[in-house]
């Protein structure tokens, strides 16, 4: 077979492939005249196949393919100075909705070195883009609704906390009053979390600001003289999932309540320090006071509801509890080690 015959054969083969393709394809000359169009292209864009051959790209249909940017890119592709890869265009036709298209183009070596030919592939992504926008809209709507629900839950919790405190003031039994006050403090800690979640994004909670807000809430409800008792917070840049922050917040609440109730008798002054640090998946939480220390013997308090809550939450977080005498005061540390076996360093207490 001669060289000329070979070129003609390869050109005819390319033409046959384009015409029979199930994808929208255009076979173009260097000056962007249509050599062939696939049946899929004509069907997708409602163009009569009989009117396509020999027409310029800008003349197809009602002229909707006359796009200066596309024309310029095809010219640059033919000259070898550029390539069209996943270029997005909007096809606008009268009395039709705008369609989002992705086009790819390259020069085609069909054996004829004297004539440059272009293969233009077109993908209609209108529905895919619409589905993406719908998904994004639904995600935004869900986030707004979730924030609204969290805000309403926080408000409801504050109302419940107020009712509990009013009830505590009215009851005669000291034991009942203590239980109602403890319930009030726990509800307030959850309300603080809900307020924080309503301002958070992505379902994660930044612990420094959350623990700060939580300590302020506990201090406002339980410390009558801020000059005598205070709560400090030292936390690194850790963020955790919302469900984990709930457990950590409840642990902090119980430990702070316990310290305020038992560590500073007889109007003793002091500080409660909340510390949290993480390294990878390992983390350590501690609540330390500089009070009277751990009572022993008959003076040691019996394990109550708060102790059970802390133990259950720590177990749920796969953490280990360590109680130590800091002389003066007491430290309760909950640590979780994923792999290293070493406890992460806590931030230095301010």
From TrEMBL:
Domain Histidine kinase: start-end pairs: 148-340
Protein name per its UniProtKB record: histidine kinase
SUPFAM superfamilies in the cross-refs: ATPase domain of HSP90 chaperone/DNA topoisomerase II/histidine kinase (SSF55874), PYP-like sensor domain (PAS domain) (SSF55785)
PROSITE patterns in alphabetical order: HIS_KIN
Molecular function as annotated in GO: ATP binding; protein histidine kinase activity
Keywords: ATP-binding, Kinase, Nucleotide-binding, Phosphoprotein, Transferase
Superkingdom per UniProt: Bacteria
Catalyses which reaction(s): ATP + protein L-histidine = ADP + protein N-phospho-L-histidine
Enzyme Commission number, as recorded: 2.7.13.3
């Amino acid at each position: 077979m001669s060289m000329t015959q070979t070129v003609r054969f390869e050109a005819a083969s390319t033409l046959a492939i384009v015409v029979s393709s199930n994808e929208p394809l255009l076979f173009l000359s260097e000056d962007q005249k249509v050599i062939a169009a696939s049946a899929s292209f004509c069907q997708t864009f409602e163009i009569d196949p009989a009117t396509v051959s020999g027409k310029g790209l800008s003349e197809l249909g009602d002229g909707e393919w006359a796009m200066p940017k596309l024309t310029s890119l095809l010219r640059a592709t033919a000259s070898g100075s550029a390539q069209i890869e996943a270029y997005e265009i909007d096809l606008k036709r009268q009395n039709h909705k705008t369609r989002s298209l992705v086009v790819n183009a390259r020069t085609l070596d069909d054996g004829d070195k004297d004539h440059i030919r272009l293969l233009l592939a077109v993908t209609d992504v209108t529905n895919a883009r619409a589905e993406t926008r719908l998904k994004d809209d639904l995600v935004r709507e869900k986030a707004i609704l979730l924030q609204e629900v969290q805000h309403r839950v926080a408000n409801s919790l504050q109302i419940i906390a107020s009712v509990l405190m009013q009830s505590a003031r009215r009851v005669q039994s000291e034991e009942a009053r203590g239980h109602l006050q403890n319930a009030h403090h726990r509800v307030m800690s959850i309300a603080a979390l809900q307020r924080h979640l309503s301002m958070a994004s992505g379902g994660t909670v930044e612990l420094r600001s959350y623990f700060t807000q939580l300590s302020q809430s506990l201090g406002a409800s339980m410390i009558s003289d801020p000059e005598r008792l205070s709560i400090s917070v030292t936390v690194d840049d850790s963020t955790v999932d919302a469900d984990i922050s709930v457990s950590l917040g409840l642990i902090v609440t119980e430990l702070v309540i316990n310290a305020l109730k038992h560590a500073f008798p007889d109007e003793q002054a002091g500080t409660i320090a909340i510390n949290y640090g993480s390294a990878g998946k390992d983390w350590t939480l501690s609540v330390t006071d500089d009070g009277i220390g751990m009572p022993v013997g008959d003076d040691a308090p019996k394990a109550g509801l708060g102790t059970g809550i802390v133990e259950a939450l720590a177990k749920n977080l796969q953490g280990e509890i360590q109680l130590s005498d800091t002389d003066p005061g007491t430290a309760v540390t909950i640590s979780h080690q994923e792999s290293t076996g070493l406890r992460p360093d806590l931030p230095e207490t301010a």
